[in-house]
Amino acid sequence: MVERIRAVAGVGDGVLVGIGDDAAVLEDGLVVSSDMLVDGVHFRRDALGAREIGARAAAVNLSDLAAMAARPICLIASLGLPEGFHPIDELTAGLASHGVALAGGDLSRAAVLTIAVMALGRAERPVLRSGGRPGDVLAVTGTLGGQAVSGYTAPVTPRLEEGAQLAGVARAMIDLSDGIAVDAPRLGRASGCGARVWLERLPRAPGGEDYELLAALPPGVALPPWLTAVGELTDGDAVELLDVAGVPVELSGWDHFR
Fold it and tell me: Is this structure's pTM higher than 0.85?
């Protein structure tokens, strides 16, 4: 779907990185991300309160900035509100709960609760998906799988500080919100590489974070304690997810249209 859109979208003046990365990069280091959350697709109102929904909508976008090693400037939110939706103050508080200003947006009536957020940030040295090289170490922040274990009710925290610290260190980076089975191949393809991930090395969560980062770093670089090496980029284009015995495992991640 994204490839079909990119084929006809083009790139305008002042756009340095367009469709296909975690966020767009414009002149002067401006980084822009946009995501939409829809009730019944990305969350369920019977499982999450309005504040948690707002926090999640902001986190999705801020995590994309983190993957570009950008620091946030502000958020813009457009809200489609169904008939009888009252906790707008709680929803707004959730959007602002990560300490990033909500600077504007739009309101409309909608059949189901719909939240479209744009995050603006700035990066002196943006990290793209495309800079990895064969032999690079693949490493993840934090722990993975907590949202699935908790039924998508646990708090979410975008890795903004960690992403910014990887500027000038990581050769490539991607947000892992769609799952490592989807996002590791994306990073590999963008870098013109294959990838090998050892599943037993993945730091697992009993509950909690899901908006983690996958970074490709030069071999021999000392990893900070909040990064865990889980694999490597390889020659070719094959992507292998291996169990403890080295046997390939078939896994699927999030797909909006499956």
Answer: yes
Which stretches does DSSP call E strand in 97-236?
102-109, 114-122, 137-141, 172-175, 194-198, 213-217, 227-234
Claim to verify: residue 87 and residue 160 sit in the same structural domain: no
Segments forming the whole domain that contains residue 11: 2-122
* Residue pair 153/52 in contact by the 8 Å Cβ criterion: yes
Each of the 258 residues of the chain gets a pLDDT tens digit; together they read 777 776 777 667 889 999 989 999 999 999 999 999 999 998 999 899 999 999 999 999 999 999 999 999 999 999 999 999 999 999 999 999 999 999 999 999 999 999 999 999 999 999 999 999 999 999 999 888 655 444 445 557 899 999 999 999 999 999 998 889 999 999 999 999 999 999 999 998 755 446 899 999 999 999 999 999 999 999 999 999 998 778 888 765 544 445
Residue 102 lies in a domain: yes
Q: What is the spatial distance between Cα 134 and Cα 219, in angstroms, rounded to a whole number?
A: 10
Tell which of 72, 90, 122 closes a domain. 122
